[in-house]
Design brief:
The protein is of the alpha/beta class and 374 residues long. It is 46% helix and 16% strand. It folds into two domains: 175 residues, Glycogen Phosphorylase B (Rossmann fold, 3-Layer(aba) Sandwich); 182 residues, 3-Layer(aba) Sandwich (Rossmann fold).
Amino acid sequence: MKVLHVLYALRPSGMEKMLYDSAEYWKSHSVEIEILANDDNDGPFAGALREKGYRVICIPWRESRRHLIDFYKLIKREQYEVIHIHPIRGYWGFAIIAKLAGVKRVFKHFHNCFSSSDPLRYMWHFVQRHTIRFIKCISFSPSLSVQENEQKRYYFPTYLIWNWVDERKYSFISLDEKNRKRLAAGITKDKKVILSVGNCHTCGTMEQKNHQLILRAISQIQAPLKNRLLYIHVGQEMDGFPERTLAKELGVEDCVSFMGSSDCIHDLLSCADLFVMSSIREGLGNSTIESLLSGVPVLLTWVQGLQDFGKIIPHINYTDLKPETMAKRIEELLLTDQDELREKATESATSALQYFSVECSCSKLLAFYRGRAK
């Protein structure tokens, strides 16, 4: 079976990482997956995906929609049996062209909780969704929040397929392993390490990931705990480094380490006492899944997408979007008995494995690809 996934420029997050983590699964089930990067370039993660065996094709986006002609030619030449569309930009055109090219199984994945306050834009989004439904394009949601948002806001049904991560790569971290990793990283025993993971390379992603909330919260934490804090910020930063500027303005730059993108997330989780996700909205949040499977306590904002974890996984900690509330929750969790936190994290990891493994989610997706889903 030959499948084409349509994405933006490829970055080490979201669906790109899920494809990376599931490469062996697809090969073992005789599914040949190719990836279309619909952007000016194929992106910084294209090389990693090629190393996993995926063929990456770049067709630049054009406002004139001429890229759809190249898309049609690609489908006819390669004879894909399945087209799986991920971007919100232009998905309507991709779905229609795929059907016109003779592809019987076309899918659209909605990865976030989308909304529009403008009546005309809302109507356009409504029409797009129900047009692809009319041409029998099946749609997916990665979480209950996205599924409910699509149904309530657009009266649009989607099938739930949870996001997944490679559970072998994000195995539960033993206490001995944690101590070894911290020692190797030069982190002393008295340090309390907070970790966040998320790209902030555009105004939109920086606003969504909202790491400035963590910086403002840290600035409100009192000594002596504040003097022992180390906040590790992982993810591509925006040009001009506005988050570093904010850290300096708040006087917390000495307890923050901006690491940029990293391929060693599990090693960094091994050093962490607490994982924090500060987003204002999410489809689900794969870095939270990675933290849960690794046995790291998590603190999440109470927003769409992240709320889902508390509905299915025990011992999820939440905060609102106020710096003073997050500061209080961080203090509470870092000063809680660590054996108690570790016992709860073990229960969370066991539960997370039942929902977010490669086998669990990809087997459901494969059934749709083969036309056998119930």
